[in-house]
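Training component of the fellowship. As part of building independent skills, the fellow (R.M.) carried out the full modelling exercise for a liganded target. The chosen ligand was F0G. The inputs are recorded below so that the supervisory panel can assess the work.
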Amino acid sequence: MSLSLSAAPASAPAEAADGVWLECIECGETYAPFEEVRYTCGECGGLLEVRYAEPPTFAEFSGEGVWRYAETLPLDAGVSVREGATPLYEVPRLEESVDLEALRIKHEGMNPTGSFKDRGMTVGVAVARELGVDRLACASTGNTSAALAAYGARAGMETLVLLPAGKVAAGKVGQAALHDARILEVDGNFDACLDVVRELADRGEVYLLNSLNPFRLEGQKTIGLEILEEFRDDYGAWPDRIVLPVGNAGNTSALYKAFRELVQAGALEPDEVPKLTGAQAAGAAPMVEAVENGSEEIRRWEDVETRATAIRIGNPVNAPKALPGIRETGGTAVAVTDDEITAAQRELAREGIGVEPASAASLAGLRKLREDGVVAADERVACLTTGHLLKDPDAAAAAGNEPEPVPADTDGVLAHLAGD
Ligand code: F0G
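Fellow's submitted model of the complex:
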């Protein structure tokens, strides 16, 4: 099984360029990485992965940010606005209230455009340039569009983004607009937007930069690599578990791939790999359904709804890569309500960590799994928060304190504070 933790490193096929090639996760067909535009297998339609003849060990990493991990990436350099190197925060009060040996928050909202998508785009847009394409596109619940617009602008390339009309948070639309993307508002949900943009890509009209693009996931592997190195340096130990919000399951797939490559390089034992644990909103939880049913297949949810609009997704395209990751690492998936998400968003904010609603699903899910005894008190856990609070100012205002009108004089303000 090619996605098994114990799979041996592959030897490079004739198509490989500098020890890098694309391989179908279903049938094993191999392709040259940069000669033609390709997102899925030409033989069976399966998802593709980037493969390396020699996965690197920790000793080969140097520098800071995503490109510290260039040895794990298909190119030596990207289209960059200094992505990665995000903080891993201590949260002593939360650690105590969730009741864990250690809890850290990896805040991906601290990337240049405010989400983890930048890690994928620095690689994906560089590959687009290598391939010589001229128009970039993505479907998005918002963050992918903001990142693609910024990296497309950086590369001087034309960018189209397809957004579900009325369902994208204000900060994200503003970013895509100002970074000069053409914004196509689609009368349908994210999954419908992705169907359209995949068709545009298949017809050769655009280069697709959704997480279906295997190069983007390479950049997102660096989240996992940073977490491992930071835990090792702070604790002298790896984390037992990583909890992350799940939409298309791109990050789940990417983190699993990062760890598999370290196992293949002999840098990590299979039983040292953190348990990958996904959290979804209850109104958009097809991955949770598949994990609970022990199913290899995903059932597409047609009607999805959640306040966490970033993960309002009913058809996680990377499920065939992510489900083996959850299973092989001994992880799980959990659904949380919108109210649990908002409560977790508030808890994080009260530790000084500002995240958008989807991001808080990880903490909400962790709390639930700890209460249910699925997560043990002696675990060291990293929770991923994927996007910044300012992405969704309306949700922040709704979840936070009400502004209080006061008169424009000091005595009046003091009287108000005294409750008079
Ligand atoms: N968290 C945030 C803030 C997101 O924007 C997304 C996905 C996810 C989590 C889910 O990550 O797909 O790797 O499981 N946002 C995409 C977008 C769909 O268009 O911005 P995943």
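The panel noted the following from the submitted structure. The first helix runs from residue 92 to 98. The pocket of F0G is lined by residues 115, 140-144, 211, 245-251, 310-311, 356, 358-359, 386-387 (CB under 6 Å).
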